[in-house]
Design brief:
Length: 222
């Protein structure tokens, strides 16, 4: 709660609202002309109110926590933080949906991961990915056997392989190249794509992930 209070001190006026209850604050203005009112309306049409149960605010600005990790968004203590450097409405919408997934993961962790089914599906794909990449690239398989985020593996994907090339290797296994980064991103990327209209693709490629998202949707309705 402290980070929310500190944030509101910096930006006392909410510029927009999501579902009439989640304020969107600006610490710094967006670098491109983008209507946050339009973004909020579109987000409301994509994600029902009950999926925002663990979100208290959305904060937009230049944050060290984002720049240090070279990411566009992060979820922390019920707040979604977004960089003010966004390409268009679609970018912001995708980032919000992605972080909503992480917020739900926080309170439904046992339901999502407790039976280890999602972990097994993820690691099976990771093993296949390693087998294909190791033909051309030199990296230890231990990094592919861990489900948590690894800076070494992330750097390998991003700089050594490159996401364009990684897309070729992952397209038959993962929803996106980034979803191969960790189990948490596997879930969140799937959640994002599910609500952006790619549920059939998730069902075909990642059936356990599809089931977990459906179960989560039903739980959060209650």
């Amino acid at each position: 709660m402290n980070n929310i209070i500190e944030y509101i001190k910096q930006a006392p006026k909410a510029h927009s609202m999501i579902h009439g209850r989640i304020p969107v604050y600006f610490k710094d203005g967006l670098t491109k002309k983008i209507s946050m009112d339009n973004v909020c309306r579109r987000v409301e049409n994509i994600l029902p109110n009950f999926l925002f149960r663990n979100i208290s605010a959305v904060a937009i600005g230049s944050y060290d926590s984002l720049e240090d990790r070279n990411v566009d968004s992060v979820y922390n203590r019920k707040v979604i933080y977004l960089t003010n450097v966004q390409d268009d409405e679609e970018d912001i919408i995708e980032n919000i949906i992605h972080e909503v997934a992480h917020s739900l993961e926080e309170i439904y962790q046992e339901k999502i991961y407790g039976d280890n089914l999602l972990k097994k599906e993820f690691l099976k794909k990771r093993k296949q990915l390693y087998n294909e990449l190791s033909v051309k690239y030199n990296i230890e398989d231990k990094y592919f056997r861990k489900t948590e985020y690894s800076k070494t593996l992330d750097t390998f994907f991003y700089k050594k392989v490159g996401y364009d090339t990684l897309s070729y290797f992952t397209e038959s296994m993962f929803i996106s190249p980034y979803s191969a980064t960790s189990l948490r991103e596997y879930f969140s990327e799937g959640f994002e794509k599910y609500y952006l209209g790619e549920s059939q693709l998730i069902l075909e490629l990642c059936p356990i992930l599809f089931d977990k998202i459906k179960q989560l949707e039903e739980m959060t309705k209650k």
